[in-house]
Automatic annotation (TrEMBL):
<dbReference type="InterPro" id="IPR013785">
    <property type="entry name" value="Aldolase_TIM"/>
</dbReference>
<dbReference type="Pfam" id="PF16499">
    <property type="entry name" value="Melibiase_2"/>
</dbReference>
<dbReference type="InterPro" id="IPR002241">
    <property type="entry name" value="Glyco_hydro_27"/>
</dbReference>
<dbReference type="Pfam" id="PF10633">
    <property type="entry name" value="NPCBM_assoc"/>
</dbReference>
<keyword id="KW-1015">Disulfide bond</keyword>
<comment type="similarity">
    <text>Belongs to the glycosyl hydrolase 27 family.</text>
</comment>
<keyword id="KW-0378">Hydrolase</keyword>
<feature type="signal peptide">
    <location>
        <begin position="1"/>
        <end position="24"/>
    </location>
</feature>
<dbReference type="Pfam" id="PF17801">
    <property type="entry name" value="Melibiase_C"/>
</dbReference>
<protein>
    <recommendedName>
        <fullName>Alpha-galactosidase</fullName>
        <ecNumber>3.2.1.22</ecNumber>
    </recommendedName>
</protein>
<dbReference type="InterPro" id="IPR018905">
    <property type="entry name" value="A-galactase_NEW3"/>
</dbReference>
<dbReference type="InterPro" id="IPR041233">
    <property type="entry name" value="Melibiase_C"/>
</dbReference>
<keyword id="KW-0732">Signal</keyword>
<feature type="domain" description="Alpha-galactosidase NEW3">
    <location>
        <begin position="425"/>
        <end position="503"/>
    </location>
</feature>
<dbReference type="InterPro" id="IPR013783">
    <property type="entry name" value="Ig-like_fold"/>
</dbReference>
<dbReference type="InterPro" id="IPR013780">
    <property type="entry name" value="Glyco_hydro_b"/>
</dbReference>
<keyword id="KW-0326">Glycosidase</keyword>
Length: 521
């Protein structure tokens, strides 16, 4: 006679096994979810979340620029379930935090033109707040969520009774429990598998089950830290082959607006998440999320592109990365990301990007709106911790109309890979170099001039001519050496030095780099 746990395992295995290759869907996205989900998640509120706070977030999302940009989901991450269930065994909303219940909250969110998401655990308890989990109640809980009007479920992996599955590893248990809830929800609800530690390796099998799956291999969520963000992104890039239209890798939430990273770092994260076909789920209060970053329509269009493909490396050497993502209309999105602590030129060729052959390419900077042309080479001087994002087109390239793509370097390192900043001494002249390169090469540059933009009180003089008498052909460079003097009493620390170049009597480009200032002994 079999034991009770063995019988439970057999029932779940027989009825809710992973779909076979013959019956599996090619996409786990429900109808209407044909691009990575966009929205807001209540994680930053933790268990201080309440229906009042969620309604306030929905108001800010709907009434500001975010809804127009495509943000739809309002997700209650956790702490919404009561510790127990009702008399019939159904989930109950925490009466203190959500006194009106989830159905009323869903109606409110839907009335704003938005969608409601909830977090729930596949185990016996919620990950936070002590609420109930869905274990052994998948069918009933899935039906209840549908009746409430829930549009998105973030399904966590906490308090899993592994002893109920003798002889099975964590992945095998997940391949029983996650499909059970997917089946119970039906096809109308987006399903996000959220295993923070990666022990269930969902990227290997989740495409037949989930809309998204978490790719972290750490035991805690992404923090508002540049170093942690880069680690999570690099891990996510290793999973790119498993994602595709309708089912996407999820490297975790967006941090923009939380305040511990710089604007440049938040823009880099948004660029990486957008080209990576990752969910764009905000964590900051929607009213405080920087719209100039998270509501950029051209960057979002890359993320929401219907081809649904995640970016791949066109080239990388550990610090300097060139990423490319094909788009539905034949264009390509490109991100040049400088992971290092010093500004650097990142270059890549059309061949590495696998662009179709063309005499010229149209290159649009999606953050500045500037348009240029190139014969094939693509390069930018990217600030430390920064990213440049392009949309590259072969149609209507406009090689004769747009200025050639140029690269303006401010204080480039003598050796690629040099991560230490140039150090200047207060009150003394130091040397800074600027360089303008005709990267695009669609025509010669004429009348090239370079000027410096410095912090208040600084002085600079060109040691070599700041205007070029020569025309710059494809790939040629114009270099200016400067004697730069920080004020004698300036505080030691990090300062930004900028450069501005003009050519052809009209075109203008800028760049900047950081330098350290030390006090003379």
């Amino acid at each position: 006679m079999r034991t009770r746990t063995a019988a439970l395992s057999a029932v779940l295995l027989g009825a809710l096994a992973v779909p076979s290759a013959a019956t599996a869907r090619t996409s786990a996205a429900p109808p209407g979810v044909d691009a990575p989900p966009m929205g807001w998640n209540s994680r930053a509120l933790a268990c201080s979340v309440s229906e009042t706070a969620v309604r306030r977030a929905a108001d800010a999302l709907a009434d500001g620029p975010l809804a127009a940009a495509g943000y739809r989901y309002v997700i209650v991450d956790g702490c919404w379930t009561a510790a127990g269930r009702d008399a019939s065994g159904g989930l109950v909303a925490d009466p203190a935090r959500f006194p009106s219940g989830i159905r009323a909250l869903a109606d409110y969110v839907h009335g704003k033109g938005l969608k409601l998401g909830l977090g729930l655990s596949a185990g016996t308890k919620a990950c936070a707040g002590g609420g109930a989990g869905a274990y052994r109640n998948e069918a009933a809980d899935g039906a209840l969520l549908r009746s409430w009007g829930v549009d998105y479920l973030k399904y966590d992996w906490c308090s899993i009774p592994t002893a109920d599955f003798p002889g099975k590893n964590v992945q095998q248990i997940a391949q029983i429990l996650y499909p059970a809830m997917r089946q119970a929800l039906g096809d109308g609800i987006a399903f996000a598998m959220n295993n923070e530690e990666g022990s269930t390796v969902p990227w290997l099998w989740g495409r037949q089950v989930a809309t998204t799956w978490r790719t972290n291999v750490v035991t805690k969520p992404l923090t508002d830290s540049y170093a942690h963000m880069v680690d999570v992104w690099e891990t996510n890039m290793l999973r790119h082959e498993y994602a595709g239209p309708g089912s996407w890798n999820d490297p975790d939430l967006l941090q923009a607006g939380l305040g511990k990273m710089t604007e440049r770092e938040y823009r880099a994260q948004f660029s990486l998440w957008a080209i990576g076909a990752s969910p764009l789920i905000l964590q900051a209060d929607p009213a405080k999320a920087p719209a100039a970053i998270v509501a950029n329509p051209k960057v979002i269009a890359v993320n929401q592109d219907r081809l649904g493909v995640q970016s791949r490396y066109a080239r990388t050497d550990g610090w300097y990365h060139a990423l490319v993502k094909p788009l539905e209309n034949g264009d390509s999105a490109v991100v040049l990301f400088n992971e290092s602590d010093r500004a650097a030129t990142i270059a890549v060729t059309a061949a590495k990007l696998k662009l179709p052959r063309a005499p010229h390419y149209r290159v649009e900077d999606l953050w500045t709106g500037e348009v240029a042309a190139t014969q094939g080479d693509l390069a930018a001087y990217v600030p430390a911790h920064g990213a440049v994002m392009y949309r590259v087109a072969t149609r209507d390239a406009g090689g004769d109309r747009a200025a050639p793509l140029v690269t303006l370097e401010t204080d480039p390192a003598a050796t690629l890979g040099e991560d230490r900043l140039t150090t200047l001494t207060a009150g003394r002249e130091g040397e800074i170099v600027t360089r303008l390169v005709n990267t695009g090469g669609t025509k010669k540059l004429t009348g090239a001039e370079i000027a410096l933009t410095l912090p208040d009180g600084w002085r600079a003089r060109p040691v070599t001519p700041a205007a070029s008498p020569e025309k710059l052909a494809a790939g040629e460079a114009f270099t200016v050496t400067w004697a730069v003097t920080p004020p004698a009493g300036v505080t030691a620390g990090r300062y930004e030095i900028g450069a501005k170049a003009s050519f052809d009597g009209r075109a203008e480009v800028t760049s900047s780099a950081a330098a350290l200032v030390a006090q003379a002994p």
